[in-house]
Amino acid sequence: MSDQIALEASKRQITGKKVKQLRREGIIPAIVYGPETEPLKLQIDRRMLRRVLQEAGGTQLIEIQVGKEKIPTLAREVQRDPLRGDILHVDFYRVSMTRKIRAEVQVTCVNEPPVVSSGEAIIIHALTTLIIEALPAELPPHIEVDLSGLIEIGDQLLVGDLVLPQGCEAVIDESELVVKIDYAAAFEEEEEEGLEDMLLMEESAEVEVITERKHDEEEEG
Questions:
Q1: Are 88 and 137 spatial neighbours (Cβ–Cβ below 8 Å)?
Q2: Phi-psi region of 147 (alpha: psi -120 to 50; beta: other; left: phi over 0)
């Protein structure tokens, strides 16, 4: 079951370009939206917001307190400065505790098989996240995948093999591959082939960029 993390906020009157002043004062603009409710503009202390987002990720409930009102939410979109990585704005989704929602949850593997520990084989991670449907309070922080049953090279786990937490349902075909045990040597060969293809693509891209730049200079002239 997902725990709720508390976050204090206050209503925001400042909008548009003036929010830059808020950021200079260590306050981040945010908004809460959801079905059948009007969007609510908020402002939140930057240090508190950063700590809560790191703890909650995208699946743990964040209970935003605005005055006497407590709003259960999920962090949906975090806008950051492309150079410094500073938080610029956050969108929170207001959830109904009685209505199922969909969320992307991290897949975490445990109990590494001996054939992998010995270096003879490797684990191919076909899925690193899984979209699940559940009530907000039942969203898990991650999906744990037990690899102890994978013994030989070629063994695999599909979505249908996963034991999901109670109340959770995967929103993907059960035949989709999650993890597979494969020869380490075969993976190294695939990596080398992939690297060669990437180098060829980069060379091709350089030619295209040079050509485009030359065309731009001609237009400017």
A1: no
A2: alpha
DSSP secondary structure letters along 53-79: HHHHTTTS-EEEEETTEEEEEEEEEEE
Query: 88 and 108: one domain?
Result: no
Helix (H, G, I), strand (E, B) or coil at 22: helix
**Residue 140 pLDDT exceeds 60:** yes
Q: Which helix (H) or strand (E) holds 51?
A: helix 46-56
Q: State percent of the chain over pLDDT 70.
A: 82
Q: Please check the confidence at residue 212 and state whether its pLDDT lies above 90.
A: no
Residue 180, H or E segment: strand 177-183
Q: Are 46 and 28 in contact (CB under 8 A)?
A: yes
Identity (one letter) of the amino acid at 25?
Answer: E
Residue 170 within any structural domain of the chain: yes
- Chain centroid offset of residue 110 CA: 20
Supply the pLDDT for residue 188: 52
Q: Count up the domains in the chain and report the number.
A: 2
Q: For the whole model, what pTM was predicted?
A: 0.70
pLDDT, position 193: 56
